[in-house]
Amino acid sequence: MASEQAQDQFRLVSPSISHEGKLPRKYTDEGQGAKKNLSPPLEWYNVPDGTQSMALVVEDIDAPDPSDPVKPWTCWVVANIPPTLKGLPEGFSGKEEEVGGDYACLKEGHNDYKVPGWRGPKLPSHGHRFQFRLFALDEQLKLGNKVTKEKLLEDIEGHVIGEAQVTTMF
């Protein structure tokens, strides 16, 4: 019975990352050439009934900060993901309009490098955990031109009907 429930659970996965697995170099600032800073592919299953849109937040949850021992570092923020989509392809970041269709509705927010889209980590040391959080929302967000993680998390308060996560290491 428990495994049946797990099958019906709202889930987030990446075909190239196993849960608690390693983030391949091509998704980071340490990749080479065209295989550098690609946004990782993501897939989700069992989107909750009543979902009007989804939002994604990806953070390095072990990032050091001189004034605070650990301060999450935002790598990617994506808002207004239509519930009709089943995932985001590899290298998608920055190509919403090029890919078109339902993907053109997405809004990529600013990461902690202060630019929109995916920005993979360049770490002083390895062993950091990266947390991918996908929120199912009961409304479409009305966000301004500059979307940040803080603004997104504030706007989704009271509208989250499901959350799925996957964590990876780098």
Compile the SSE list and pairings.
Layout: H1 2-8, E1 11-13, E2 21-22, E3 42-45, E4 53-60, E5 73-81, E6 87-88, H2 96-99, E7 107-108, E8 129-137, H3 149-156, E9 160-169
Biased composition (Basic and acidic residues): 19-33
Region (Disordered): 1-46
InterPro entries: PEBP, PEBP-like_sf, YbhB_YbcL/LppC-like
Description of the structure:
Residues 1-46 are annotated as: Disordered. This is Phosphatidylethanolamine-binding protein. InterPro entries: PEBP, PEBP-like_sf, YbhB_YbcL/LppC-like. The chain has 3 helices and 9 strands; from the N terminus they run H-E-E-E-E-E-E-H-E-E-H-E. The strands form 2 sheets. Strands 2-9-8-4-5-7 form a 6-stranded mixed beta sheet, with helices on one face. Strands 1-3-6 form a 3-stranded antiparallel beta sheet, with no helix packed on it. It is mainly beta. The longest helix is centred in the last third of the chain and has 8 residues, at 149-156. It has helices spanning 2-8, 96-99, 149-156; strands at 11-13, 21-22, 42-45, 53-60, 73-81, 87-88, 107-108, 129-137, 160-169. 11% of the residues lie in helices and 29% in strands. The chain starts with a helix and ends with a strand. The chain has a single domain, classed as Phosphatidylethanolamine-binding Protein, CATH 3.90.280.
